[in-house]
Write a structure and sequence with these properties.
259 residues, alpha+beta, glutathione-dependent formaldehyde- activating enzyme (gfa), 2 domains, eight-stranded mixed sheet, three-stranded antiparallel sheet, 8 helices, globular
């Protein structure tokens, strides 16, 4: 079939074959591409050798490469339901690990937690002392704050980063009880934080008005205006672990307070 002169003029013509033996594009001066334009023919010279840099220069819109396999595997490991939970303060001077799954996670709406956190509520996940490990060489500083939740007036002990430019609260003990660690959920690593949700909302009689717990109720989460009875809420496994924790404390390894 005979082609019209316009059709021939608008085609892109390569004037030299690429050498398949060397992988080179040959002499740049003898290899030219003529783009299809309506009124003007522009000539582009290709580089002598096709390198990564020259390829990128010819294709300015390149998709970003995916994460490395090690990064993907690390995220998968952190997202595994059986993997230890890990966390740190803002500057990462203080790091920690929960070697097993939490006993329970509280979302507390009491006015004390609102005052302490400067927010609408506090989100703490509970773990036995012996299942919580500080993994950094740096140890936290402890602040003793009045605790209205402690019947005997014991202080609320807050562990925070010793770096004065960070000073983030990481975990705490309530009412002098060192057997149970209350870990601040916001300090968990990203892969760990996404695995922790509130199991119960407590002291909701003082929650702020704009917090709507309707979705939480639909999810099956219990909501209490005050506190609750552990036997009515905790899982059987957590209650069994609680008994082991009490025995551990009675053995003189824990300090004061109820577990």
């Amino acid at each position: 079939m005979r082609q019209s002169p316009n059709s021939k003029r608008n085609r892109m013509i390569r004037t030299k074959q690429v050498s398949t033996e060397t992988g080179s594009l040959g002499d740049a001066s003898s290899i030219k591409l003529t783009p299809r334009t309506a009124n003007k023919r522009e000539t582009i010279a290709l580089p002598t050798t096709l390198t990564a840099d020259s390829f990128l220069s010819l294709t300015p819109q390149i998709h970003t490469f995916p994460k490395t396999l090690s990064q993907i595997n690390k995220k998968r490991k952190m997202s595994s339901p059986t993997a230890p939970l890990t966390g740190h303060c803002a500057c990462k001077t203080l790091t920690y690990t929960l070697t097993t799954q939490p006993l329970i996670t509280h979302c507390c709406h009491c006015q004390y937690c609102q005052l302490e956190t400067g927010s609408a509520f506090a989100l703490n996940t509970l773990i036995e002392n012996y299942n919580f490990t500080i993994t950094s060489p740096t140890r936290p500083l402890y602040a003793h704050r009045p605790s209205p939740s402690a019947p005997d007036g014991s202080a609320h002990v807050i562990a925070h980063c010793p770096n004065r430019d960070c000073n983030v609260d990481v975990f705490s003990f309530y009412g002098g009880n060192r057997g149970t660690v209350f870990v601040k959920v916001g300090t968990l690593d990203e892969g760990s934080r996404e695995r922790v949700r509130p199991d119960v909302h407590i002291f909701t009689r003082s929650k702020v008005e704009w917090v709507d717990l309707g979705r939480e109720v639909e999810r099956g989460v219990k909501v209490f205006e005050g506190f609750y009875d552990r036997e009515d809420l905790w899982s059987r496994e957590s209650l069994e672990r609680l008994e082991k924790l009490r025995a551990w404390k009675e053995g003189g390894k824990g300090e004061g307070g109820d577990v």
